[in-house]
Every structure is written in C-alpha cells, then in structure tokens.
Design goal:
globular, 7-stranded mixed β-sheet, binds magnesium ion, alpha/beta, binds xylulose-1,5-bisphosphate, DNA polymerase, domain 1
Length: about 260
C-alpha cells in the first residue's frame, strides 16, 4: 500500500540550480570580493559535488589552493555560504524559482488523497522553507510531515543517509513509499535506501545514469502538456497523477 511520497528539492520540485543557486553563489562571491564566477557549463560540472559548502571547497582546492589551505578557511566558507543562502532566499521570495510542471497539482492531489508527504534534500533548510512558501503556498511547509535537509546527516547524497533519516521519522518501510529525484546522485541515494524512484530529468542531468529508476520522464506533465517519457509505462495517461503512482508503486513492489 502506497502511504507516502518523498521528494527531492533541487531539480525535482523546481529547476533551482542554473538561475537560482548559481546566481546566489556568484552574488556571494562578489560580496566577498572573490574573483570567482561560476558560469552555466562550469556550474553543471560542479553539481557533481552535492552540498553548497562542499561544492565551494571542491572549487577552492582546485582554483585557490593557497586560500583553501588557510587554517580559518572552513569558517570563511561557512560565512560565505550564509551570504549565498541569503541571496538564494531573496531570489526565491522574488518569485524567480517556480515549481516544475505538474508538481503543485500532484502535491495537492496527493494531500487530498491522504498520502503523507516528505522531503529529502541536500539543500539547506532555509532554502526549502522559502521555496515551499513562495512557490507552492504560504502554508505549504505544513503539508510535509518530515523535511530532511542539508546538514542533518553527516553524508550527503549519493549516500542514502538523508532518505533513511526521513523514513525513520515517517516510521515507514521503504516499500510503503515512492521517491522523486532528478539526478544520478539523488537516484543513488534513494535506491540506496531501498526506495522505488520516479526521475524527472533536467538540463543538467539529461545524460546521467538513471539505471534502477522505476520511471524516467522529462517532468510530471500537465493535462495541456504531456510528460515526455524516457522510460515508463504511463498506462495510457499523459501526466503523472495519484492513480498512476499507486499503479507504479504496486508494480514496483511486486518486482521486489
Ligand atoms: C542539490 C544540492 C544543493 C544545492 C545548493 O540538492 O546539491 O547543494 O545545489 O544548496 P538536492 P545548498 O538535489 O538534493 O535538493 O547551497 O544549500 O547546499
Ligand atoms: Mg536534486
């Protein structure tokens, strides 16, 4: 029986990276007087490292090794990440990060059908709150019973930790849930936690390895614009709805 849906955030609920996080990182670099600028292609490469602090450290070790080697660099990075998060939250509240197609409708329908909702993300909790309030509904944070975000677990995706953390707090086994992801790292994490996973890919993750995903789509689809199917049996439907998720869940569990 399908009881809960667990959503990744960045790339899944919304296309947050290219025109959201990336701009926030560059604004923080400017504030700090750093000569760093992450353009669209470079940021796509850096996304292989999950976690904003971890991503900046990875970049600094390669492009500013002397700075990265300073004893107080960790503290400097933490402050830089606070600046970046402030910029990102402002962008989100300015309405610059809309939800992906079909996400709002599916979340509302899932709630109405009595499915429990949760979030499992690498991004910072402030970013999740801002996105839910600004792009879904003012009270949308309360729609999610569990929000697993950022540093609550020691190991970020592709480690399964954040999904295991969420399942434990839901008090559910993985086979009572479905996960939604957008990237190779995210899928490794959800599969590592034993979760059947629906992938909606994006411009930065089109060529990722989605082996093991139960379904792979361009997005969840909406009545007026069907989802493009990469690998899925839509059972005659043109967009993902609660009934289709229940069918997929039953098929996924029967395969186990
Ligand atoms: C995506 C990430 C995050 C964001 C940036 O997380 O890896 O690090 O890129 O957010 P997910 P922070 O796809 O799991 O939602 O700077 O707050 O880390
Ligand atoms: Mg993601």
């Amino acid at each position: 029986m399908l009881e809960a849906l667990i959503f990744d955030v960045d790339g899944t609920l919304a296309d947050t990276e290219r025109d959201g996080h990336r701009l926030a990182f560059n604004a923080a670099f400017r504030d700090a007087g750093l000569p760093w600028h992450w353009d669209v292609p470079l940021y796509g490469e850096l996304l292989a490292v999950t976690g904003g602090k971890e991503r900046m450290l990875h970049y600094a070790r390669r492009h500013a090794p002397d700075l990265a080697a300073k004893p107080d660099f960790d503290n400097f990075l933490r402050k830089l990440h606070v600046l970046k998060t402030e910029h990102y939250v402002q962008l989100v509240h300015a309405g610059r990060v809309p939800l992906r197609p079909g996400v709002g409708a599916l979340l509302r329908a899932a709630r109405a059908a009595g499915l429990r909702l949760a979030i499992a993300t690498t991004t910072s909790p402030e970013n999740v709150s801002a996105l839910l309030q600004a792009s879904l509904a003012p009270d949308a944070e309360s729609w999610f019973e569990v929000v697993g975000a950022g540093d609550v677990v020691p190991a970020k995706k592709p480690a399964p930790d954040i999904y295991l953390w969420v399942l434990e707090r839901l008090g559910l086994p993985a086979d009572a849930c479905l996960a939604f992801e957008d990237s190779g790292n995210g899928l490794k994490a959800s599969l590592g936690a034993g979760l059947a996973t629906v992938v909606t890919d994006g411009e930065y993750t089109l060529n990722h390895d989605f082996s093991g995903a139960f379904a792979v789509l361009s997005d969840l689809g909406v009545p007026e614009r069907p989802a493009q199917v990469r690998r899925a049996d839509m059972h005659g439907k043109s967009f993902v709805d609660v009934d289709l998720l229940r069918t997929w869940h039953a098929e996924a569990i029967s395969k186990n």
